[in-house]
Amino acid sequence: MTAAATRSIDWDSLVAALGEIEIIRDPVQVARLSKDYYSYSPLLRADLDDKVADLVVRPANEAEVMKAAAVCVQHRVPVTIRGAGTGNYGQCVPLRGGVVLDLTKLQAVKWVKPGMARVEAGVKLAALDKQTREMGWEIRMAPSTYRTATIGGFIGGGSGGIGSITYGQLRDRGNLLALRVVTMEDEPQVIELRGDDVYKVAHAWGTNGIITELEIPLGPAYPWTELVATFPDFMTAARFGQALGDADGIVKKLICICAAPISDYFAALRTMIPVGSHCALLMVAEPCLEPFGELLKEFGGTICYQKSAQESGKGVAIGEFTWNHTTLHARSVDPSLTYLQTLFPADKDLKLVEHMYHHFGDEVMMHLEFIRVNGVVLPAALQLVRYTTADRLYEIIHYHEDNGAFIANPHTYIIEDGGRKVMDPAQMQFKAMVDPYGLLNPGKIRAWEQQQ
């Protein structure tokens, strides 16, 4: 169905059929709830700025989700699922109008046990963490949008984040235990997925099932100290990041390395970080601060900011200057900036990182996030790019790929063209079963469009 086709739908009839479910029809609110942070990309702005839903449906529980699904299937209306809208790729932008299904009212924490939690999709990560930490546990990983992001949106569109230096990525077996999914069939049903079956829906952008509940593992809740350390040059900072990542005896949650002048964009930290610094933004367990200090000394680092775990939750949160918040802060100063998403190969010497740093200079400012991939610590990067033209942006992307770096292209709304490269056959088969009319987030999967 095209966006033009949705104009022929009897929207008043559809709204009446939804009964008591909350409906938003105000054009300003509908437009706002049809967007995410795709504006990071000048290419996506051109593609998506004019895309908007016809209305927003905001169910309060799973029963209302099922009712909304049934009504939308009956009217053959496209449905785009939304959490807090903190993603960057247009995942929750409706390409063909229709309904945005906002799940932020599904906020029940079903239960919390040692090492595990069962929650509804609209639960905010920070709210869940607050509750689980009272029992000595915390969520394993979170995006930099931790305070506002919902767990359903994170599982549907995220890949990792703060905590990935220890626990790897969401796709790694064991980081997601179960999903409860509402289908988009003529008679919608609820399906519980467990074990490896969860990956039929996880990180599929809401294209093959409406996640209503999740069961996730938790990690031990350490008292985290937040730190910023400066270094005499970028590669020393980067090699410190690698060494800290490899130091198994030092418990850490975040290793973010920023080349100058990136930290100059951090307005709230300007009085703490010297201008023009190459720096590391870190979260280290308090019991590990002494060995951490020895490692830092070895690399000539200097601490310029430190907040104890007791002070955490007050004022500045260091994690909100890392991952894609780094991009957010930089763009708030210079909106012409955009970014890349790069996975560098495992290499203790960081030779390819060093090459790219010198090759592109200030045009591509190096920002590394160290993560664990298949048991190996390596640098992912969300470099800041001084954007000039689309052609030049793709020259930069191709140069990275030609030299052995993996680019998860953040400038496309097509799943296969981003980090996937190909669509998971199991996800395609599951979509054919649970969304036979292709109503869920249409236009985002090239393979699906080609087979219709």
UniProtKB/TrEMBL annotation:
InterPro entries from the UniProt entry: FAD-bd_PCMH (IPR016166), FAD-bd_PCMH-like_sf (IPR036318), FAD-bd_PCMH_sub2 (IPR016169), FAD-linked_Oxase-like_C (IPR016164), Oxid_FAD_bind_N (IPR006094)
Domain FAD-binding PCMH-type: 49-221
GO biological process: lactate catabolic process
SUPFAM superfamilies: FAD-binding/transporter-associated domain-like (SSF56176), FAD-linked oxidases, C-terminal domain (SSF55103)
UniProt keyword annotations, A-Z: FAD, Flavoprotein
Pfam families according to UniProt: FAD_binding_4
Name used for this protein in its record: FAD-binding oxidoreductase
Species this chain originates from: Thermocoleostomius sinensis A174
